[in-house]
Each structure stands twice: as structure tokens, then as C-alpha cells.
Write a structure and sequence with these properties.
Distance between the termini: 57 Å
Shape: elongated
Helix content: 25-40%
Strand content: 25-35%
Radius of gyration: 22 Å
Largest sheet: 6 strands, mixed
Number of helices: 3
Number of strands: 9
Order of helices and strands: HEEEEEHEEHEE
Structural class: alpha+beta
Number of domains: 1
Length: 189
């Protein structure tokens, strides 16, 4: 679901940028800012780069049903669905600084217009994704500096959004629980 969520977000943002900026080419790429050898990837040049920078497990979980009734009346037990929040760095890597700022404005506008996406707002949402919620992630100047330093990249105009509550469920049965087939109401002496 993580990969699906990020690719889908990249695709929608790319289409939004094409529409708003009257472009023919896609401006978005889901990629590292700097590859593992410390080199700036060529396909990031003059693009809006989406990079996953953090995954955090949501620990405040609502009540979950852990059993599913089977056709024979028994129940399949499985582990609870886990939910994750993804921090997504969106950087505008253009040679022209003004172009970077103009594009960043459109990126911010995209997330303001689409603070959540579900099947009612986008018919192309991938199977298994019910809803994507986007929230601006505020970090300080020092945290931003540390982030870019840790990535080994030079700062580019950028913003961070949190994609909230990505569900992960393997649907692996942990046990089969027999269903109640009859109730004995006789009182004990």
C-alpha cells in the first residue's frame, strides 16, 4: 500500500501540474533526491521530486474486528490492520529558481484543493486504498537543514506533507475459531 499510495499521489499531482501550468510533459518523479552513491539522478533535473522521508506507525487505533465469518459458520482470526503515516518531501528541482517557486505554489495549491482523496473524488484510486489524507507537516529551519544534510543534497524549494493512515493488512489467517452451533439452556442442579 505504501508504494501504491506514493505512485498514485505522484500521478495525481503530475496531472494537476500539467493542467495548471499548461504542459505536455509530466513534471513529477517519485525518486531519491540523491542516489546511494551520492549522485543527483539525471531524471530529477527540472522535475518535482517526491521522496518518502519517514514512516511512522499510527498507535492511536480505533476498535478493529479481528474475525471474519466463513461460509461454514466458523471464524477466521487474523491480526489487526496496521495504519501508517508517510512523510513525503516534495522538492522542486529546476535550474531556474523562479520556476521552482512557481511550481511549488502549484504543488501547495494541489494539496489545499485535495486535502483528502477517496473513490468519490477520484475513480482511479488503486484497489485497497480507501482514502488518502494529506496534512502539511511543519518542521523548523534546523530540522529542515538537518534533513537536507542527512540526504546529502543541496536545499531546493520544498514542502513536506504527511499522508495519513495508510492501511496495511495481510489477511493471513492465524487460527480458525469454530462458531457456536447450539446453546444448552439446561440449568445445573
Amino acid at each position: 500500500m505504501i508504494n501504491d499510495s506514493l505512485w498514485f499521489t505522484s500521478k495525481l499531482l503530475g496531472q494537476f501540474l500539467k493542467n495548471r501550468l499548461a504542459l505536455d510533459d509530466d513534471l513529477t518523479v517519485l525518486n531519491y533526491l540523491v542516489d546511494t552513491s551520492g549522485v543527483f539522478p539525471k531524471n530529477n533535473k527540472n522535475k518535482v521530486v517526491l521522496s518518502l522521508i519517514n514512516i511512522e506507525k499510527e498507535t492511536n487505533q480505533p476498535f478493529y474486528i479481528r474475525n471474519k465469518q466463513l461460509n461454514d459458520g466458523s471464524y477466521s482470526s487474523f491480526n489487526e490492520t496496521e495504519r501508517y503515516n508517510l512523510d513525503l518531501l516534495i522538492s522542486c528541482n529546476f535550474d531556474d529558481y523562479s520556476e521552482s517557486l512557481k511550481t511549488l505554489d502549484v504543488v501547495i495549491n494541489f494539496f489545499q484543493v485535495n486535502n483528502y482523496i477517496d473513490a468519490t473524488s477520484s475513480s482511479s484510486i488503486p484497489p485497497g486504498l480507501n482514502r488518502l489524507e494529506f496534512e502539511y507537516e511543519k518542521i523548523s529551519y534546523h530540522q529542515m537543514h538537518s534533513l537536507w544534510t542527512a540526504m546529502g543534497a543541496k536545499y531546493q524549494p520544498s514542502i513536506i506533507y504527511k499522508i495519513k493512515l495508510i492501511k496495511v493488512q495481510g489477511h493471513e489467517t492465524t487460527e480458525i475459531i469454530p462458531g457456536v452451533s447450539q446453546i444448552n439452556n439446561t440449568a445445573a442442579p
